[in-house]
Amino acid sequence: MTPNPKISLDQLRALVSVVDAGGYAQAADQLHKSQSTMTYAVHKLEQLLGIKVFEIQGRKAVLTSVGQVLYRRGKTLMEEAVRLEHVAASLAAGWEPELRLAVDTIFPTWLLLEALARFSDEHPETRIELIETVLSGTDEALQEGLVELGIGPTVPAGFVGDPLIRVRFIASAHPDHPLHQLRGPLTMADLRQHRHLVVRDTGRERTRTVSWLNEQRWTVGQQATSIRAACLGLGYAWYAEDLIRLELDTGKLKPLPLEEGSERWSTLYLIFADRDATGPGALRIAEILRDQLALRCPQSCLTDTILGRNTSPPNG
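Now predict its structure.
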């Protein structure tokens, strides 16, 4: 059984306010209480705990060593009480205690983290669980009820999604890769002679495996592994431009001069698991994502009009 405390939050609040405000009179003004009320609360706290919180040094009252500990602990407890009230208010208003998202790894990571940070600044009490997916992974997470919100390259049957962003893929390899030593535009026949780096579909069924260009391929589990392998000259792949911007800028990777297909485009969709049952937290994250995209990305990225180009999401 949890023992009952001797002191109250009001008494701790009085102590913390007196220290933060710089005196009893200032604290009383901030809390809209009388100075005698503040003085009584601190003295009562001292009496109940059998300690002295303040001592006189010269003409000024300062915290004792025990008072410093009590102030720090009390301030933390007051902040926790405020957080508890915020959590209770959010839950009473229907805010979810936890939000689960499945987001394809080709979505710009920096943009996603900015959106999540903005949401968490507004609602720090809501936990975030992020599932990073490739190809059919988002579909599977939605279909199995593992997430409230998904971002993926297709909308699974029975769900409704809105176009969110167009992603540009660039066929790339290390500048010293043999493909860059060939003269003239490269053909599919040229690519078939070299290793293709592929990121594995995270869906268990792997229903949307891309048609392979050749039998020479490495399949890896992470985009970072594929990019690292390409930077070491171990193969080529089509990468979302945002994922390899640094490598392109620093010369670690170089676009392949293909005769056709050097660029591919994919549309990512924002998909609710159940739009009618979606809570305010998931709705707010979706709103922030759209706001961030409108603010940080050119308008050409925000339409699902692909101008007749291939929209199949490559995974390598």
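The CA atoms of residues 195 and 234 lie 7 Å apart.
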